């Protein structure tokens, strides 16, 4: 790993999506993931939400049935807009990991969760290196100290090498379908904030 990643990224997509064990490289991937839904689910409800944007054709229906709705943790489906699909999963079995995720203590994930994350991203390449530095930070403290030009003990005191999740970005802001008011513009913006993380 030659540099430190400085851009903000959706933490749930990196640390929680792999827990579904949907293999990397499938035809459809969520445009975004969330740990809460405003006025519907709080992060304490231990739900994981995957938002997909795809035409609801036969290919997508097959994918949905094989990977999404048949998943043992699948709980609910919501159509938020034309070709905008939300899948809700019960992550109560990962309560410890969710608690650690919320406070940015990724190194404190259970061994099984770390293995699932590692298996998803593999062990070769820059992204794999970043992921390993986040879940096994002690192995990368010297590299970060050198790159950031700070004393090693400063990095060791901070310990974690990835910032906490932005819980506002991790919350889906969309009116629940049954509450939609036809007099308002209910289209869903799929844009993401690419602001830098320090």
General form: elongated
Sheet bearing the most strands, described? 4 strands, antiparallel
Averaging pLDDT over every residue, what do you get? 88
List unreliable stretches of 5+ residues.
179-198
Instruction: List SSEs in N-to-C order.
Output: HEEEHEEHHHHHE
As laid out across the biggest beta sheet, the strand order is 1-3-5-4
User: Could you tell me how far the N terminus lies from the C terminus, measured between alpha carbons in angstroms?
Assistant: 18 Å
Structural class: alpha+beta
What does the model show?
It is a single chain. This protein has a 4-stranded antiparallel beta sheet, with no helix packed on it. Strands 2-6 form a two-stranded parallel sheet. It has helices spanning 11-15, 58-68, 95-102, 111-121, 126-135, 141-148, 152-158; strands at 32-34, 36-37, 47-53, 74-81, 84-90, 171-172. Mean pLDDT is 88; it is low at 179-198. The protein has 198 residues and is α+β, with helices and mostly antiparallel strands. It has a domain at 8-94.
Summarize the structure.
The chain has 198 residues and is α+β, with helices and mostly antiparallel strands. The chain has a domain at 8-94.
């Amino acid at each position: 790993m030659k540099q430190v990643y400085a851009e903000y990224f959706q933490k749930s997509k990196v640390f929680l999506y792999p827990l579904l064990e949907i293999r990397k490289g499938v035809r459809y991937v969520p445009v975004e993931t969330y740990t809460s839904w405003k006025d519907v689910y709080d992060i304490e409800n231990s739900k994981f939400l995957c938002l997909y944007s795809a035409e609801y054709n036969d290919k997508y229906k097959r994918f949905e049935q094989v990977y999404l709705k048949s998943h043992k943790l699948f709980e609910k489906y919501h159509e938020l807009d034309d070709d905008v699909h939300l899948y809700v999963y019960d992550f109560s079995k990962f309560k410890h990991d969710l608690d650690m995720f919320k406070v940015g203590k990724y190194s404190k994930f259970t061994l099984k969760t770390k293995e699932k994350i590692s298996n998803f991203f593999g062990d070769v390449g820059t992204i794999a290196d970043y992921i390993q530095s986040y879940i096994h930070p002690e192995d990368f403290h010297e590299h970060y100290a050198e790159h950031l030009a700070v004393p090693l003990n400063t990095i060791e005191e901070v310990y974690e090498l990835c910032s906490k999740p932005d819980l506002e970005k991790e919350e889906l802001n969309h009116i629940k379908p049954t509450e939609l008011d036809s007099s308002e513009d209910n289209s869903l913006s799929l844009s993401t904030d690419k602001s830098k993380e320090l």
